[in-house]
Specification:
By secondary structure, the chain is an alpha+beta fold. The chain contains 13 helices and 17 strands. Bound molecules: 4-amino-1,4-dioxobutan-2-aminium adenosine-5'-monophosphate (4AD) and magnesium ion. The site of magnesium ion has 3 residues, from strand 16.
Amino acid sequence: MKHTDIREVFENKELIGQNITVCGWVRTSRNSKSVAFIELNDGTTLKNLQIVIDKDGASEVNIPRVGTSLRIADGKVVASDKNGVEICVEPQKIEVLGECPTDYPLQKKGHTLEFLRTMPHLRGRTNTFNAVFRVRSVLAESIHTYFQNHNYVYVNTPLITGSDCEGAGEMFQVTTLGYNNDFKSEEDYCANDFFGRKAGLSVSGQLEGEMAAMAFGKIYTFGPSFRAENSNTPKHLAEFWHVEPEIAFAELPDVIAIAEDMLKFVIRRLLDTCPNEMQFFDARFEKGLIARLEELISHDFGIVTYTEAIKLLQESGEDFVYPVEWGCDLQTEHERYIAEKVFKKAVFVTDYPKEIKSFYMKQNPDGKTVAAVDLLVPGVGEIIGGSEREADYDKLIAEMKKRNMNLDLYTDYTDLRKFGSVPHGGFGLGFERLIMYVTGMQNIRDVTLFPRTVGSIR
Ligand code: 4AD
Ligand code: MG
């Protein structure tokens, strides 16, 4: 269907005076004696295009209802003081593509986000979701651009995997067999299953990412990860998008520098590319959002060791729900206190106790901590988790044995430490958490089109 995007109508001043065709859905309409007005939106921009219908004495002009889809053929683009541009058209040039009856749920403005969550198939038609998903799209492009500009190879790691990367027991199982009593044991059951052994949906592409980095030097993945976490919180999804760079010849400080540089690049680009969307979020969801992001990208991020962070929490005088002592995992309330109250900006926390982190992290000389890093941000908490990896074969095997891991499942991975091992590291960025942080949206269900969470799928 030949037509002009409404975004183009606003941006291309050369169209003024020309006759064009536009399509879209009616956001509002208004009738008066000699003219009628329609606010039309086709999804390409937050702004509605005003259509002015000159009734020219024709009294029987049907004004389409909210939600109706239209094709406006051969309308004249005219400059307008109020709207920048608008389109003037005769009534007979308006073609209804699809009627929209009175039970259309988005007749009125101002629905709550909770209400809109009950209609994932329609909520994209609101300004909020239009802005969120344009930001999401622009961020994805900028992440690719950042890594492509820095010689990284984009790799696609498998979604179905035989090994658990994080080892936290959060894998969805992939099977074509129902378990039944004919099987002698779980082992027997798995042996008869599709892959001949237990398989699951990957929680992270890191292990395969390391293999690729040991060949291509620098790689990144950008795809879905799955977590069967029973966490019904505003920041957990069962299916989320994960950005995982992995870098050979890199130690923890290098990994931290790359994370900071990448985030500053994508946020700068977002502010430059999406001014209207960012102003919308600033006005509607978080006052001062743009200033906060500008401030963030013009200074160094904070950095603190886990051990220092524990001290800060203990000396805070705050009444935390979860008690704080060296060795505990940082809860969201702790993470937010450090980012929001102590540093008031994004902060890297490094060198966590090895017991609360994954098997693959590089063991520090103190024997107690590992070269791990989490990035904590105000409003959300952790958005990045990463580390330098243990590159020493013997140390890695010893740690895996200590954790009772089945070494046979990880021979490809441990082989990397036999054949030309190098210091290397990387991190995982939760894409939806980044979107929450840069838009001020407070629930991860509102930054993904069709959220999958515990007990909820549609
Ligand atoms: O901290 P995580 O578990 O680290 C890893 O998976 C490493 N293998 C990454 C690496 O070093 N390559 O997850 C990384 C990030 C978290 O910081 C968080 O932003 C996001 O992934 N994430 C989730 N996002 C939404 N819903 C969930 N259930 C998430 N679990 C993790
Ligand atoms: Mg983590």
